[in-house]
């Protein structure tokens, strides 16, 4: 009886070895289990009453990598979104001022297993500020005794349909993250820390009609006296796949004495978790 069972098992093993290309295969026949483990140079066959396939280790999910969408704006030194008269050329339409974060990479460094640790990674932050005014943003050259100043200029135009100020940053987070479930994708999660940024691009984009009625699009690319580096407090909180985030810059947006003293902020949610 045992010889017959082994012979039939051998035939089944041969058939399944041809039909499958996976490294490990489990076959059940009349209460018996046959485990086929295929290596690079050999194949091992194990017979028994209770065999389990080797389980793959689950990859821990954190909450940096993904696609974020939110609202961004400026705060004055007093914490207000209302700008003074001399800085009013940067008044924003908040309904159209959006931030997009594309974070392709994250790395979790455990302190207390999967529940608490340090989270870092790499990302790109695309800030779009929709301006209420019709002024073109410029950097006014300085002289030997004065510094260049960030400001505005008026151009000969009719109605302005779009006036966007954009700034793009390469970002690196250093966050402390807590999860109340073993896997970060489940349960409550919270992280807080800093996001460091390096400006990689900035421009003013305008769309308007000339007095003659012709539509025109202009793009002005320069540094606008923006700070090359940024440093922001940030927090992320959520349950399961739902993730909300907020940031507040500790560093001013423009270089000292070369533009308005404004501090960017963002609030939004994660639309896609990588």
- Tell me the radius of gyration: 29 Å
* Overall number of strands: 14
Low-confidence stretches: 1-22
Topology as a string of helices (H) and strands (E): HEEEEEEEEEEEEEE
Shape: elongated
The largest sheet has its strands arranged as 4-5-6-9-10-12-13-14
Main beta sheet = 8 strands, antiparallel, barrel
Structure, explained:
This protein is mainly beta. It folds into 2 domains: 2-48, no CATH class; 66-273, no CATH class. Helices cover 7% and strands 54% of the residues. The chain contains 1 helix and 14 strands, in the order H-E-E-E-E-E-E-E-E-E-E-E-E-E-E. The strands form 3 sheets. Strands 4-5-6-9-10-12-13-14 form an 8-stranded antiparallel β-barrel. Strands 1-2-3 form a 3-stranded antiparallel beta sheet, covered by helices on one side. A two-stranded antiparallel ribbon has the order 7-8. The longest helix is centred in the N-terminal third of the chain and has 18 residues, at 2-19. Residues 1-22 have low confidence and may be disordered.
Q: What characteristics describe this protein?
A:
274 residues, mainly beta, 54% strand
How would you concisely characterize the structure shown here?
The protein is mainly beta. The chain is 7% helix and 54% strand.
């Amino acid at each position: 009886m045992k010889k017959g069972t082994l012979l039939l098992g051998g035939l089944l093993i041969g058939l399944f070895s041809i039909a499958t290309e996976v490294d490990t295969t489990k076959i059940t026949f009349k209460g018996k289990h046959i485990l086929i483990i295929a290596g690079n140079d050999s194949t091992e066959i194990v017979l028994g009453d209770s065999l389990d396939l080797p389980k793959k280790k689950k990859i821990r999910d954190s909450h940096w990598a993904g696609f974020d969408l939110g609202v961004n704006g400026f705060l004055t030194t007093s914490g207000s979104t209302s700008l003074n008269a001399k800085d009013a050329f940067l008044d924003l339409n908040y309904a159209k001022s959006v931030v997009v974060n594309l974070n392709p990479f994250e790395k979790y460094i455990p302190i207390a297993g999967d529940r608490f640790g340090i989270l870092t990674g790499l990302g790109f932050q695309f800030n779009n500020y929709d301006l209420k005014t019709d002024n073109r943003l410029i950097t006014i050259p300085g002289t030997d005794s004065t510094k260049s100043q960030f400001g505005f200029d008026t151009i000969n135009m009719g109605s302005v349909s779009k006036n966007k100020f954009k700034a793009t940053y390469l970002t690196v987070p250093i966050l402390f993250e807590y999860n109340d479930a073993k896997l970060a994708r489940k349960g409550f999660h919270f992280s807080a820390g800093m996001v460091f940024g390096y400006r990689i691009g900035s421009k003013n984009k305008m769309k308007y009609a000339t007095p003659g009625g012709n539509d025109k699009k202009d793009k002005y690319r320069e540094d606008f006296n923006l700070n090359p580096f940024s440093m922001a407090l940030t927090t992320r909180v959520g349950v399961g796949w739902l993730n909300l985030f907020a940031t507040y810059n500790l560093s001013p947006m423009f270089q000292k004495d070369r533009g308005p003293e404004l501090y960017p902020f963002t609030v939004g949610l994660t639309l896609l978790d990588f």
